[in-house]
Amino acid sequence: MNAVVAPRTRFDDAFAERQPEGLPGLIPYVIAGFPELGDTVALIQAAQRAGAMAAEIGIPFSDPLADGPTIQRAGWRALQNGMTLGRALEQVASAREGGVSIPLAVMTYINPVLSYGVEQCARDARDAGLDGLIVPDLPADEAMDVRESVHASGLVLIPLVAPTTPAERIARITERAGGFVYCVSVTGVTGARETVPSEALALLDAVRHVSPLPRALGFGLSRNAHMRALVGHAEAAVVGSAVIEAIEAGEGDPAAAVERFCRAMLAEP
Hints:
It is built from 12 helices and 9 strands. It is α/β, with parallel strands linked by helices. The protein is globular and about 45 Å long.
């Protein structure tokens, strides 16, 4: 059986419109249902107003293997608020109806996708207006069926690679991928860090040698200096824990906190 080619999505257009010599595009991460169940749409709208290239929406899960303490804490609150995968997709659809035009991807785990039904999840995600899925606990060697269903529905399954991923494996992982390559900056969980590690820059360079796809660095980014350090190395930066911390410190207006944070991340020197 011929593999389904990765479809074109809003991610392709967003990366094509980016200025090559400028800061990497910002992809803030928000958790569906955090801080309150109905806040998701306003947070995505705030990210778009601030100039974010795209947004990543986390689906809270009871066993979040890739998440550090900040995102685990926020995810637990979202679960307590009643967030589910299906409800998150409804909120994505509401965001599209509310004028959100930037690319959107959800980060979830394989258990909720399997429970929902892979093909049904892919169809409903497409109908909601999503562009991609990120599933960090789905091994690349076992991802074919999920990838085929996702790509057939018009979305992309976005691959993840780490500093420990050998070059030949990066080539295999990215061969049929679409959207962008999610480059994990560290061998650990999410959480803000002081600097962009040298192994992260080496990973970005390794990906460029084997794949033409845009590169987005995630895990540990939290400040404008990190964005500047990625100029010439990455086309985008995914920022999660620092966004959650900005919301928690936002004094009752989470959307305003997200907008301020994103604008600060994108400030030109």
